[in-house]
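ligand=zinc ion
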Amino acid sequence: MPDFLPPSAPAGRPGCELCREAGGTLVFQSARWRVIRADDAAFPAFYRVVWREHVAEWSDLALADQAALMGAVTAVERVLRDGLAPTKINLASLGNVVPHLHWHVIARFDWDSRFPAPVWAAAARAVEPPPAARLRVPLEELDARVARAVAALAPAA
Ligand SMILES: [Zn+2]
């Protein structure tokens, strides 16, 4: 796993957890964005693409930067679709809790605990066997595939 590269001063914000730490299992990091896997047992194939500098809103990014970030989001989505054949991919950018620009890329399955509601809804059912055991591809292999896919877009930092 790569080492977390914090925002260059003075772009970081004290007290922002995505400026201070990776925010999950760090899968790949370029100079401008990183991909992490959220460590969420209910949703094991839950990745985030995080802009490195502290930016709160999508429209704060220049168009070229939006395109670069969306390229990474798209690459992660493609890996999840190809590897896991999910019922649906969910893309979301909220930032209500941590207002540091990031996109959620989440593989959803009709058996998951909240489907068809958003992952942030209350659980509707228990899932057995555990979600990670139901994936077609082990998480370590999925991480490696994601890292390879996004490495084609930008060099590692
Ligand atoms: Zn931040």
